[in-house]
Specification:
A: alpha+beta, OB fold (Dihydrolipoamide Acetyltransferase, E2P), five-stranded mixed sheet, 5 helices, globular, B: 769 residues, alpha+beta, six-stranded mixed sheet, 44% helix, flat, phosphoprotein (chain B), HisK_dim/P_sf (chain B)
Chain lengths: 162, 769
Amino acid sequence: MEALSLRDDLGDRAAAAGQNSLQLIAFSIGEQTYGVEITTVREIRAWNGATPLPNTREYVRGVINLRGTIVPIFDLRARFGDGQTSPTKNHVVVVMSVGDKWVGILVDAVSDILTVNRDDIHNVPEGNSIDTELLNGIVTHESRMVGLIDLQAVVSGAKADA
Amino acid sequence: MSDLDDFKATYFDECSELLTALEEEFAAIEAGERDSDRLNAVFRAIHSIKGGAGAFGFSALVGFAHAYETLLDYVRDGRVELTDEVVSLCIRANDIVADHVNAAQTGEALDADYGAEEKARFDGLARGDSGEDDEGGEPLEDFDIDFTPVMVNLGHAEGEAAVEDVFDVPPMAPAEGSWEIRFTPHRALYARANDPLLLFRELAALGTMRVKARMGQVPPLSDFEPFAVYCSWEISLSEPSLTEAQIREVFEFVDGDCDIAITQAGAVPAADLEAMEEDLLADAGEADLSSLLALTEDEMAMPEPEAGIASLLDFAPEPKPVAASKQDRFEEAPSLSFADLAATIAPTPATAPKPVAVAPKAMVPANSDGEESHRSNGVQSIRVDLDKVDRVVNMVGELVITQSMLTQQMDETLRARYTELVRGLEVLAQTTRGLQDSVMAIRAQPVKSVFSRMPRLVRELATKTSKKIKLETIGENTEIDKTVIEQLSDPLTHMIRNSADHGIESPEKRLAAGKSETGTIRLSAEQAGGNILIIVEDDGAGINRERVLKLARDKGIVAPDFTPSDEQIDQLIFAPGFSTAEAVSDISGRGVGMDVVLSNIKKIGGSVHVRSWTGKGCRMTLRLPLTLAVLDVMLVKVGESPYVVPLSSIVETMQCSRASFERVPSGGRVLQVRGEYVQVIDLGKRFGLAKPTGTADQFVVLCESEGSQKVALVVDDIIGQQQVVIKSLEENFERVEGIAGGTILGDGNVALIVDVQGLRTTHLHQNAA
């Protein structure tokens, strides 16, 4: 792992673009690190409030105006069942594309861009249903555990049961 | 191949326009306007559809259209009388043509013998009156639409000066089946974008042809008018057994837009021929220009003056084998126009350069501007991607909002201090309004395009149900936004199907009820303020309320102990889940897919209201926004969040204390407004944005959607009116109950649009449940 990331740092693009490696944007929620594939990320912006959407689950923070388009914001902490984030100006919204839709995810901070080897991605251990539901896998990076977010799962079922 | 696809798309666009036109023409013909103009228009429309179909190889369509066209031709000639029977056959034929077009477009195959019966009747009618004329009975397989025969040598790339088109056989040997045709196009012929070359091509398919251009009319260059027609043609055509009728048929399409004289070749008086030659000689002085003109439809050769005359008089400069070159010649030919002419005139000074050198230079590819100005004389129009227009509409919407935001932010002190700025803003406001109106007008279309599909539907329904139904349409020129129109077709079809199927009674029942045998469905469109009202009305039996209510109770849509008003019962037919296949047969009133109507109409920000009179009929009213892009709204605050309520549904706003709401037994609350009790919806509660309830004064927005009872929305503050651009929530999220969409305010924040009608319905259901 070390070697691979070192090579990337040196700018070995071939390795980065190689089929077997994956670039992630890593962000943190509390002590936890999560990542999404860099190609899905459209924009990272500071939290600036959102207009709440009625009749939706608590992890739907509302909608924001992204240059004329209305984009929903999901509170990842709340999605993991940890209660709503109390966002400050330092909190970050990562705007990503899921299918043909754009969605924003509210996280505490964006930490890093990581390159990992696909072979090093592990399945999520059975046990906690939230984890298995929302994560695509787990990968270790510099002895940190990074959960790979399954965006599709995160944004689905946002409507509150009426 | 994408080019071909483009052409096809254009063709199908044109077809739908032509079919619409056909419906109109026949509506007029049915109403008794049986003049030749109408018939000609019908004929042209069918001919155009046939022509395009031939080009794309839709043989079934070509076959049917050809038979239809032949009949029309005979009607035009008076050989077949335009009886009611023929008219209704034609109307049926239009439907079949439409089906064929549709089949060609979707790639679905129709039955091989689809329309065969009608075709046989065409042929029968045509033959019955035409006697021995073999034209009507011409087997359709023989109809050659591919225009392959190009045996024309259209000029001399090598520079041999010649201004005539030469065919393999030198003519002037008048034989049987030899014809002389004088063809003088009018301006209108070009204005309709017809190309003489295509006619010549078709003629060339009939026999051996030579074409000679006459240019005696060409004025000096200084008087030259680009749009005028100076050129006419002498065509001699020979082929044994060629009949005049066959030649006439070629010119049918441009009938009225040109003068045609057809004479048997031998019959041309010598004097005429002499006059003709004099004509040609008279051209000699301006041979360089006139020869160019002769070639406008062919290609540009640039003969020397002398050579020009020589060739005018010399009938047969070596016939050339054209196998290799004819193809590309034809490809170039239509693209040449007066623009090229202008381009070529410039480098043609009196010195008259050698044709060899000039000819290639002269073959400038047509520039599209020239083409455009040449072709279109009347109303000019362009086809534009709706996406592009949408972008402009959106941007103008944003501009309008920015403008109103700027105006709002001018407070009184600023106003007093900067009068110039205020004036500037006022001008800006006017300009943006104007700009907005013009942009909206681009998207506006008459509802005719949807209405015109309905007569056919009604005819079909009448046949299917063995009823007599008449359709009246009113206000079909009312214009609505294109996207609204597109969404209108399905709901209208449903509504009319309902009226015909369930509303209008059978002729016997109608007579028994003392009504006329024929039921009437009236379809009308009118503008009412910022809305369009589309009304479907019938004089049928009306909704059977007892059955509707019973069914609604059975389905649990209405609580057993709740007795809805008549109006509420009528409205029930739109309830989702109310109409299932089972319900359709059970209910003599309405029910088929009406929830689809409602959801479609809601999707475009409209509302539906139904009103029924037992035994007398039923009226369904669609209220639609003029445009989907911009909405006049009132900005309110619920909790900390901004919401907007469409101005079109607001009756009034008022301030009142919570104490003035009264409880009703169901637990709901009502507000008394001038003696009327109105259902109260607390938006804060409804949207889960509950604030600590105080006794503080509340604001109430009194709303009403088409025909429904009023509803009072409780909000925390009223901010003001403004215009907003509607943005979709579904684009990146999903539909949210009670919310019709979103919009972006001047400060960049998102405000949600309250779906008043939606709130009411869900509320009603909650109460009922």
